[in-house]
Amino acid sequence: MSILEAREVSKIYPMGTTNVTALDKVSLAVGEGQFVAIQGTSGSGKSTLLNMLGGLDHPTTGEVFFSSKPLGPLTKKEMARYRRYSVGMIFQGFNLITTMTAQENVGLALAFAGLRGGQRRKRADELLDRVGLADRLNHRPSELSGGEQQRVAIARALANRPKVLLADEPTGNLDSTRAHELLGLLREMVTKDALTILMVTHDHELATSFADRIVLMKDGRVVNGSDG
Amino acid sequence: MLSIMSFIDILHLALRNLRQAKLRAVLTTMGVVVGVAVIVTMVSFGLGLQGNMLARFKALDLFSEIRVFGRSLGNMAATTKDRGAGRSNEPSERRQGRLRPDNSPTRILDDTAVAEIAKIPGVAYVEPHISFAVYVRSNGRVSTQFASGVAVPNSSSRFQEFVAGKMISLPNTDEIVISERFAKDFGYENFPDAVGKTVELLAPLDEKKADKDEQSSADQEPANFFGIPLDDQAPDEASPEGLVTQTFRIAGVLKTEVREGPGQGGLRGLLPTSDIYLPLRTARAWTLEHRSPMGQVALELARGSGALGDSDTEGYDSAVVRVLDPVALTDVRKRIADLGFGSFSIVDELEQLRTVFLILDSVLALLGGISLLVASFGIANTMIMSILERTREIGIMKAIGAEDREIKLIFFVEAAVIGLTGGVIGTLLAWAIDGIANRLAYRFILKPQGASYVDFFSLPPYLSLGAILFAVVISILAALYPAARAARIDPVKALRHD
Prior knowledge:
The complex is a heterodimer.
Chain A: E1 2-15, E2 18-31, E3 35-40, H1 46-53, E4 61-66, E5 69-70, H2 76-86, E6 87-90, H3 102-112, H4 117-130, H5 146-157, E7 164-168, H6 176-193, E8 196-201, H7 204-210, E9 213-218, E10 221-224
Parallel strand pairs in A: 3-8, 3-9, 6-7, 7-8
Antiparallel strand pairs in A: 1-2, 1-4, 4-5, 9-10
Helix pairs in contact in A: 3-4, 3-5, 4-5, 5-6
Chain B: H1 7-20, H2 22-59, E1 65-69, H3 73-76, H4 90-98, H5 111-118, E2 123-128, E3 131-138, E4 141-150, E5 162-165, E6 175-179, H6 180-185, H7 191-194, E7 198-204, H8 207-218, H9 228-232, E8 237-238, E9 243-254, E10 276-279, H10 280-289, H11 293-305, E11 318-323, H12 329-338, E12 342-344, H13 346-389, H14 391-399, H15 404-446, H16 461-478, H17 480-487, H18 491-495
Parallel strand pairs in B: 4-10, 6-9
Antiparallel strand pairs in B: 1-11, 1-12, 2-11, 3-4, 3-7, 5-9, 6-10, 7-9, 8-9
């Protein structure tokens, strides 16, 4: 049974008088504990699909299911809770809050979940330790390398124990060595912690090396590998 | 499980945001500081004005006294003026015109009526108004003076301060109280010298009066005002000049009220001032004995017209009713009107005055309000700027699970912090301005006039707290639109990498 599923999802953006179809009836099912890579050129709609699955955007038509439950009927508040507890997201640009330390960045996600001071710090430290940053707790993003920043982002994404991690070009700003290290960590999380990962990338080599399954996208459609 | 971000965390985020743009936060707060300072200063000035006025009234007993009017002899005789033709005391004339009752009296204000009024719950005592002009001899000098009767004991503020001696001790003694002016006029160098000295009231020897004299003293009884002084105290004696004299001893010299600045001083209580105060019964007896020719005519006319029985005497033209508690004044006044007497109290005027002050305070608050309104635009502007700068950050928060409500709250708390800080500093500033203005006013206006220190500004705690609260509320209102706008930020757009 799939934990996350897109069924006939389309996204159409109105652009002046014409409409731009970013996603065209995309169907995709991700099984629990899988590491799935979505590969495609830029503009193929892979990031748009990821945003739908992450609850940041709504499909024009079609439906996204999490644990077989549709996201469509959720209220804004329930959507926020879905993003908080059900899925975690990381991005190419890390999207850390630059004025906060690593610990505070992770703590912020915990704060939204209502965790108080001491408890929050303890959990943030655990998470940062898990991604190998036990000695970088009080560093700000500007004092960390790209790889380290993305690890902080991973720790933050996993703060409230989601079952699924959605990664949008997580290695896009990293050199090859750092990229391998990072994907090694993600792979380990899938294997050891039974995390489900859906990663968008344009790097075929990385996708084949670490993912269980590769989904190819082109012009807003899935070319192959939509199920399985 | 608590799944709501704690207020402390939201406050932390808000403070962090403010710290990130310190100068902007400080400048925005300055707007609120100025706005609040203006409001508080303005309103405290209005309240101070009002407070000083009311305190003044209170000090002058104007809240605890009602003036009651009976049907006057002049009215009954269908002539113009009541007895006391010799009355020429100017303030008295003026006040007579001013303190007019709002309902015309139907009863004569005699001793029975006075006793009736005194029984109304809440009434401390009733002091009939008796005053007359009389020739007075003391310390070897003679002059016309204006004399009044006074209830003993008396809680009116008029009889609280003496420069020498003390108040008349008992209701039926031969003691009197004189004014500072009297003491000076009669050549007493120092006020203490006057205490214990004698004062003679002079009246013409009149056979008709002498008859009445006997008549009055024949039916004397303690509860009756008539006659008592004549028997219990120094009786009238024929003086060498062929005049009737009655001798009194000065018990005390009243402190004359000093005028304090413009618009102050003057009226104290609802009765005109005199230079000699005699115990009430003595004064009443004197006026009945030594009626002026005009008063005599009025009395005969009234008796002739049947408005007054042949053996009846005229009542008092007015009396002052002192209430125990100003709160009861309105009720007492109603009871007096029910009894058929006219009445006047300053509280009527006070109601109108309150309205005037309400308008004044509102106008002052409005002026201050405008400056706070301007500040609120500053807050809205700061918030919107801050949103533009923090779009990405807000997007991140939403992506990691912040609810719209929490995003809004952060902005509201930011605005509230600005409002609270500005409000507190503004109030402190207003407090400082008030203090300085009070001192400057004293130094350059009051002191040169010899007046004592007065707080021109009144800054009650509710005004400070109200102003701070108002600043916070206005600030939050100013953040309504920016907060809604922040909550509407689309995380997909906000996070799109450049």
